[in-house]
Specification:
This protein has 333 residues and is mostly beta strands. Helices cover 3% and strands 52% of the residues.
Length: 333
């Protein structure tokens, strides 16, 4: 921990001037991050205003007040996501098929709960007070009761789940990547409610929701964002996005939907003109590899992580990370 803090204290947090496009979003600063491991999803604890970055085998915690390292949660093998209830934090550990439960104030892990195979996305549903992991290996969802910190049960999903979004009314939606569908489920009854095809969207990954207007935003690997009516399942629009999407967010204050596209290093910004009309208003240049993102609803800032890449190191097939190049990108409006 001391080594990590020293690293970021010594590292330069670079403010960067760049021209803003129609959305107003521009790269405001780059923050070097310690470690050379890969990363997946990002999450913000709105109480502490800290950013949680999944980082290989641990979770790096960054203060959004000054971009210093606020802490580190170790021993989270092949970590994918972080979710927060009002009092606790939950981490999906894909490497050992568990959820780590921690105190957001102390960052200490108090319990590990076995879940399905390959837990990836993880969400907290405030309406039912359940945490759900979406398990890519076993193609199901594990439902955890927050009060008792025990597993209620498992919901078969009929395909490989990706990102998920609760609607605040007791229903959770999840993208099914290999069948190109959205599934809705009830965390209390632990049943699938509806299954909607997303055609012409293929291989949906990131998912966001406009709770007020009942709209879902799926990032699709055939370079489109599928906008779906959460009542009927109808695909309302398919605005174009860049390749390599793995993250989608929605800002209710500005009525903007976002897609982070790691393949070409872009951030697509889609405006919800009306609940039935959606248009791309900006394509913000980010950096290649910046495929996941989080949006801060308080500041409207967008945060992404990337690195420089080299050739794969056998037997790996993915590009290798150039040591010392992992960085946080901060986009302000």
């Amino acid at each position: 921990m001391n080594r990590i803090c020293t690293f970021l204290t010594a590292a330069l947090v670079l403010p960067i001037a760049s021209l803003a496009g129609p959305s107003g979003y521009h790269l405001a600063r780059t923050v070097p991050l310690p470690g050379n491991e890969g990363w997946d999803d990002l999450a913000i604890d709105r109480t502490s205003h800290q950013l949680f970055i999944t980082h290989g085998t641990h979770v790096l915690v960054i203060s959004l007040a000054d971009f210093s390292v606020a802490g580190d949660i170790p021993d989270t093998p092949r970590v994918h996501g972080v979710a927060f209830s009002p009092a606790l934090g939950f981490i999906s550990d894909g490497g050992d098929n568990t959820v780590s439960i921690f105190d957001p104030k102390t960052l200490k892990v108090s319990k590990r709960i076995p879940v399905g195979t390959g837990p990836d996305a993880i969400v907290y549903d405030p309406a039912t007070k359940k945490v759900l992991t979406f398990n890519g290996g076993s193609k199901d969802a594990t439902v955890i009761d927050v009060a008792s910190l025990t597993v209620d049960g498992t919901v078969p999903l009929g395909g490989k789940p990706e990102f998920a979004a609760p609607d605040g009314r007791g229903t959770v939606f999840v993208n099914i990547e290999d069948t190109s569908e959205i599934v809705s489920l009830d965390p209390v009854k632990m049943v699938v409610l509806k299954r909607w095809p997303l055609a012409p969207c293929e291989e949906p990954s990131g998912l966001a929701i406009d709770v007020a207007h009942r709209r879902l935003f799926s990032g699709c690997h055939n370079t489109m964002m599928a906008v779906v009516d959460a009542q009927t399942g109808k695909v309302l629009a398919t605005p174009p996005i860049g390749p390599g999407v793995d993250g989608n967010r929605y800002d209710p204050a500005t009525r903007l939907a976002f897609s982070s596209n790691g393949g070409d290093g872009t951030l697509t910004v889609v405006r919800e003109v009306t609940p039935a009309k959606f248009e791309v208003i900006d394509t913000v240049q980010t950096q290649k590899g910046a495929r996941t993102m989080v949006l801060d609803p308080q500041t409207h800032n967008v945060y992404l992580v990337t690195a420089d890449f080299g050739p794969p190191a056998p037997p790996a097939t993915r590009p290798s990370i150039v040591p010392g190049t992992v960085r946080l990108l901060v986009y302000e409006k």
